[in-house]
Fold each of these.
Amino acid sequence: IPTEFEQARPIMQTIEAAGYEAYFVGGSVRDTLLHKPIHDVDIATSAFPEEVKQLFHKTVDTGIEHGTVMILDHGIGYETTTFRTESTYQDYRRPDSVTFVRSLAEDLKRRDFTINALAMHEDGEIIDLFSGLQDLDNGVIRAVGNPEERFNEDALRMMRAVRFASQLNFTIETKTTAAIASHAELLEKIAIERIQVEFVKMLMGQAPQMGLTDFLETGLYRYCPGLADGQDLIERLRRLDHLQLASEVAVWTVMVYLLDLDHVKTTKFLKAWKNSNQIIDATHRANAALHGIMQDSLDNWLCYETGEEDLMTAADLAALLGKTVDQSALMAQYQALQIKAKGDLEITGQDLMAAGVQPGPMMGKLLAQIERKVVNNELTNEKEQLLRFVRDNK
Ligand code: ATP
Ligand code: MG
């Protein structure tokens, strides 16, 4: 039993002492049984939200309409969700309504895959109603119940299947795979933001080839933004040896690189996937650097504009794409830059004004010129030198 569960035991005992049931559920149980680190402890209980709130001093209504209350205990928050069923899915996504129930079995039945439908009692006992333990042992992702019905209810589950295949290095069971293939089109009903989360997790998983193979063979990719004709891209990604992507930016950069998108099309593609401006900017930088490394044309200016983090991403990706990269030489090139940002210049707008330059576009131009020359080592970043340049060029 991991320490996170140990710490939560008093909470479980409090709930049970009041006559209700409480179990650990979801990813934390699955990951514990796989001896993987767990991130969040989810608790399911027969107590209704108001009943949970009466039992503890500090709670937060994090999602009370879905039955979720966070219990605060010694600075740790525990998400506690009332057993529930989800009824009448009419739009292939979220249920129309949730109904709170007192039965654990009902709650486990609505969960997506057998490995996610295990519950663990505070004493360590496992409740396994759908042979989830066997599937965990065999490395299998299997829908709970009839896979076609389950994907009809909520099409996001298809993306979750390929994401877990990749994260866990598991195989999707045959009928579940077939149901994904026949229902792939329903993905169009799902908000892109939610598809994106699963897609990124798939590509960042420990065995992305696993997820990618199903993503390709079931045709799910066709219903993802910009990937209607993405077969070739997915094939190429899948065939990369040691495909390991360490960040979101790495995911998007390798995609736009392999798709060979120009700047405008890159922005369009990333926006279609609902990426934040921060991710879009970082991807542009990493992609420019990646092109530079691949073409042996990474100069000081490109290093500088890219910045350390995105440069490392580009270096990793270049290696992944088969380029021999001297990472330490690359880092040395970056570290040797005289400035890492404009603010590092030993001269300011004030200094320029003191030297007789009028504030305005001319001053901006002159500063930009100085910045470029310092980065290219055509000027030394010393006040006197820079002022001399200003006097000669104003
Ligand atoms: P992660 O490690 O990524 O958090 P997880 O399995 O905990 O994986 P969550 O999205 O946190 O995934 O969901 C918690 C649990 O809720 C799942 O294990 C599953 O039992 C259930 N669940 C989540 N999303 C769905 C869904 N779309 N359909 C059915 N059950 C779901
Ligand atoms: Mg979780």
Amino acid sequence: MVLQAIKYSRGQLEILDQLKLPHAEEYDHLYSSTDAWHAIKEMRTRGAPAIAIVAALALAVELTNMKLPSVAEEVKVFIIEKLDYLVTSRPTAVNLADAARKLRKTTGEAAEKAGATGDAVREAYVAAAEQMLIDDVSDNENIGRHGADWLVKNTPAAKQGQISMLTHCNTGSLATAGYGTALGVIRSLHAQGNLKHAFCSETRPYNQGSRLTAFELVHDKIPATLVTDSMAAALLRQKGQSENIAGIVVGADRVAANGDTANKIGTYSLAILAKHHGVKFLVAAPRTTIDLDTQSGADIVIEERPGKEVLLVKGPRHDGINLDLAVVETVSVAAHGIGVWNPAFDVTPAELIDGIVTEVGVVEKDSDGVFHLEKVF
Ligand code: MRU
């Protein structure tokens, strides 16, 4: 069975509630842009590409099921207001802003056509939102293939045989419309018979690596081991040779024009480790994550999340032997009264990145160490 974070048919949208995974697989219906805003903010749906698609489709559902004004301009204004609102849900990932920009354009063009009606504007919007869902899956499959081929061609480890990879963050089917970005590279390596082992890190917030990435690896029967984020250096030192670790592959929430990459908190430290240990560090992301209007990582707004996400852990009751899935408990894991700083992302400087894997190929730096990301558009 294929993991599906987003279930859509015209007029109907459901998301897999990612706060309940891996212990319960429950879908929530989203009926409107307001429902989507809350689902994104609360991280019931998450991952840069998935956020963009859920937002776009929730508005499509709202438009499909509502009684629309017949005047095209009024429908356009309604859609644009809702898109502006959706973009305020989370700031760091650019995919949502990019999707909103494209959908505003489509809507505007439809409204300007001679004889345009409210229905025609709605139809143009809905068709464009639905296309985003379709495109994301095929883009991810291409990212996976390009990344896997690049690793096989460019890493000394691959000359020894099957390679192992460490991944961080949540980048699989749950974070996208399907297949995944960085996890897509691992899926492709596995499908090609080139993967020895995948290591995934625990990753905050909400331990998305152990709850979501690990869930996907187990689901797909990919040989995999979970480590905490603080074990990565020891992993590379102690198991780098025996496991034939070729590198680290991560996703991205926003890649600036110079290649600086905002991704899940902890990514930056992994890039430093990769450099120190002489293994490759790859960022895997669709072109919708590349933001040529942002010059460098210094211009990226990093979301700070509530401290309670660090102070508290939620899960089913466990008596030391058995899990009771029917009872979900929240426990405190920190000293009462301690302050918390909880940035959800960090920025990895381009100099630490060996390649940016997109659906149209892997971008490497030129001989002066500069990425030319404009080439992929
Ligand atoms: O904060 P999240 O859970 O929405 O972020 C998910 C990630 O792990 C990201 O770093 C990212 O979107 C990777 S690309 C699929």
